[in-house]
Amino acid sequence: MHRFRTCLFALAALAAVVIPSPAADKDVVSREFQVVQEQVRTARDRVLPALVRVQPIIEAFAGGRKISRTGFGSGIVTGPQGYVITNYHVAGKATSCICVMANKEEVPARLIGGDPWTDIAVIQLDWTKYSGNTITWAVLGDSDRMEEGDFVLAMGSPFALTRTVTFGIISCRDRSLGVMEIEGEQKTGQFNTWIQIDALINPGNSGGPLVNLRGEVVGINARGGAGMGFAIPINIVKEVSRQLIAQGKVDRSWLGMRFQPMEKFKKRFLGEVATGGVLVADVEEDSPASRAGIRPGDVIVSLGGTPVHARFEEEIYPIAKRVADQRIGTALAVDYVRDKQRMSVSLTTEPLEKVEGDEVEFKEWGFTAKEITRAYARETRLADARGILITGSVNGSIAEKAGFSSGDILRRIAGEDVNDLAHFRALYEKINRSDENRVVARILKGGRNPRVAVVKLESLRKDRAKEPSKDEPNDKDPEGAPAEEKAPDEVRGGTHRFSGRS
Question: Is residue 80 part of a domain?
Answer without folding.
Answer: yes
